Amino acid sequence: MSLLRSLLFSTPLIVIATVVLDLLSMVLSFFDRSGNSSHQLARLWGRILLAVSFIRIRAEGLEHLDRSANYVFVANHSSYMDIPAILATLPHQFRFFAKKGLYRIPFLGWHLRWAGHLPVDRSNARASLKSMSEGARIISQRRMSVLLFPEGGRSPHGLRGFKEGAAYIAIKSGVPLAPIAISGMRQLLPMGSIHIRSGRVTIRVGEPIVTAGLKLDARMEITRRLHDEVARLLEDPGRPVLHSTS
Known about the structure:
By secondary structure, this protein is an alpha/beta fold.
């Protein structure tokens, strides 16, 4: 029954919401080049996807964040539903570092480009470094937060090692790193699955890690510290409550 609901109800509504809101986002971008309006629509998109998938989010630790400050948000990544969950939960304006290949996907790629998100070419070290430097510049000049998944992609099991890009950007721009743990989403929509299960997921935000005054050669140590903090946040009992596993 859960699979039928996913295929016949949740998935079609997700496609419709994505297409409609992407088109609206592109229209709004003609009038708002800052990307702020597009982000508000993306936040609405995230809430709609969670609602039609019957996924409820419990947020913990948002009190650690200053609404007037900007951050380099860093989260674990195990499911396509992680992004809607973060969009629906975080109160900040932020932009993504997204894989370059996503920009070739109709509607999704258009939205990423028009909303001001930053492409990363992980196959090219020099291009990747350029993207990170551009992200640091945006944070400094536009006081805009960014979100990264430092595992380098979705992880099917556990928490993989973190790449140093997030620490590089945070140190170069002088803003704090905010660790985020998404606990339980993998069980609701695993990698390679089209079966979206309903249930509850927890998003935990840890204490931001201050980077002001640090040198770039500290990025390895900061990356280890960041990984340990996300792992600690994931250890808290946060297994999803499945409403149906059939």
